[in-house]
Amino acid sequence: MTHQIELSGVNKYYGAYHALRDIDLKIKKGSFVALVGPSGCGKSTLLRSLAGLETISAGDLVIAGERMNNVPPRKRDLAMVFQSYALYPHMTVEQNLTYSLRIRGMKKAETKKAAEEVAATTGLSNLLHRYPRELSGGQRQRVAMSRAIIRNPKAFLFDEPLSNLDAALRVHMRKEIRTLHDRLGATSVYVTHDQIEAMTMADHVVVMRQGVIEQQGAPLDLYDRPVNKFVAGFIGSPAMNFIPALPGPDGRSLILDLGTQQVVTLDRPVPQVSKLIVGLRPEHLRIVPDHDAMLRLPVAVVESTGSTTYITSATVPEISVVVGERQTLSHGQVIGLSFDPRHLHLFDQETEQRIDAERA
Ligand SMILES: Nc1ncnc2c1ncn2[C@@H]1O[C@H](COP(=O)(O)OP(=O)(O)OP(=O)(O)O)[C@@H](O)[C@H]1O
């Protein structure tokens, strides 16, 4: 069996509110899947439905080949890791780790051995006798994960586990969770609203909006070929620039509306849709001498972090540009920009769906 978890036609209502709409999702054994989307899109509801903390209203949920729609959470054999670590404060790390084994009647000697084994994997061997209040945020997070690992579940379900941690620790824990996942050969489902977290940790990213899966696939496939304007704007940081445009009369150019009109000529036919949106990622724009420029924009703001310069144009819509080199630019100065036409994305302004030039 290659799929550890399969959802087909899953719908969830909270009263009249339709929180999950026709969800089809297949999660391969051993894969790391991230559910990502803005607040309220339904990602926690989906995760909680897998865990059995919510009952689905329609559709099928199959885990390791068994239909699980009405199976209670403890019989699903999944382990949930929350952002609030939910550790028992009056228990040591070892007692926290072995609690679930003890209530199932496992002998003391065996639970001790199991705790030591897991602690060796997660780097907690020296901390087994401490209480949660004696641990750092990262260590508590590791205890929470170890407590899930010790149960040897069919899959790990993570609900925004890193959102309480500071930025540096979050980056560190990202790597730690991914390394653990690889070492254990586990199946993991990870909820986050942070697209960078999703892109860097997961093999398969599921982008949700208003209870619907908008797109799913390998992280870089979503970046390279977003199916609509929503996914295009959600994946990538800083966000993709969107410019209203009309097809030019020669069939190979676009008339961009940046307050003033600017015409760019492409290497391919432009789809003859009455109104388009052009998508250009900030990192795909280059500053070039005026005679090579495809676009000319006045500069509004220049911010430099040392390694990277962020430029914002004084146009409507604003255009963001990210370059590696340092720039000495002044407010109001006009810069020439160029880009590889392969990096240009086109969307129908009406439907906001991607349009491919080949289909024109
Ligand atoms: N028990 C409930 N009763 C009614 N509506 C609910 C309930 N739980 C969640 N919802 C609604 O369902 C929608 C999806 O909620 P969910 O918690 O899954 O979103 P989310 O994507 O995880 O958001 P966040 O990132 O803010 O946690 C929201 O509009 C929420 O208000």
From TrEMBL:
It is found in: Cell inner membrane. Its main location: membrane. PROSITE patterns: ABC_TRANSPORTER_1, ABC_TRANSPORTER_2. It is a peripheral membrane protein. Residues 5-235 form the ABC transporter domain. Pfam families: ABC_tran, TOBE_2. InterPro entries: AAA+_ATPase (IPR003593), ABC_transporter-like_ATP-bd (IPR003439), ABC_transporter-like_CS (IPR017871), ABC_transpr_MalK-like (IPR015855), ABC_transpr_MalK/UgpC-like (IPR047641), Mo/tungstate-bd_C_term_dom (IPR008995), NA-bd_OB-fold (IPR012340), P-loop_NTPase (IPR027417). It comes from Rhizobium wuzhouense. This is Glycerol-3-phosphate ABC transporter ATP-binding protein. Belongs to the ABC transporter superfamily. GO terms for molecular function: ATP binding. Keywords: ATP-binding, Cell inner membrane, Cell membrane, Membrane, Nucleotide-binding, Transport.
